[in-house]
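Subject: Putative LL-diaminopimelate aminotransferase, chloroplastic

B.,
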Amino acid sequence: MLEGEAERWWRRQHPEKFKGRANDQITWEEVEEHMHFPLLKVIVVMEQNKELRAAIASTYYGPLGIDEADIFVSDGAKCDISRLLLLFGASVKIAVQDPSYPAYVDSSVIMGQTGLFQMDIEKYGNIEYMRCSPENGFFPNLSTVSRADIIFFCSPNNPTGSAASRDQLTKLVQFARDNGSIIIYDSAYAMYISDDSPKTIFEIPGAKEVSWMAFSDFLVFKLPPSPTCSAFNALLLIQGEKLLIVVR
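Prediction pasted inline below.
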């Protein structure tokens, strides 16, 4: 019934019940009986719900060719930011908007991808800080940005609230393609965009080849931060043609 990390988690939580039993011998009745945590139960149920995944794909990403087969339910936006960086290893260099959501830098520090904290400028070494200020329209001057393996880009930005235009995102995608970089695009606040700024980077030609995307439904539905309700908060990650939905 469960696969991969989920199966291993169940075996650790209930060694007496599941020890020595093959995955296909675990029934849904047994799984539901031991689901003491509402969040985990909702995650498993949502992952099995093809109709839900199809509805998410068609509602948010229908014109982009995303279907339910590209969607997977997991356990958290900020968790998966760290997991993505873990996949790339400690030798990669990241670039972040300055200012930006702190989880990008924090996760990179935890993964050992940065240099030491420099007290005089209050920044970490081996991170490319892309200055976004009123003077440059809250979009970095890419001609002065050094190459990075991973580019974190949030639009609308947290904390400035600035949404990148179609022309700006086109430049960002081309910059990533020219430098062999991967964009991790955070569109958690996309539903607040009221002009014609793109709500997803995948509206930009060529973005699928160099981008992943994160999107959080809890800002759409304004759910409270309780374990049960937060199970409906979704993160979308796309690598190439693949899309993951991660619940937090």
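The longest strand covers residues 234-239.

T.
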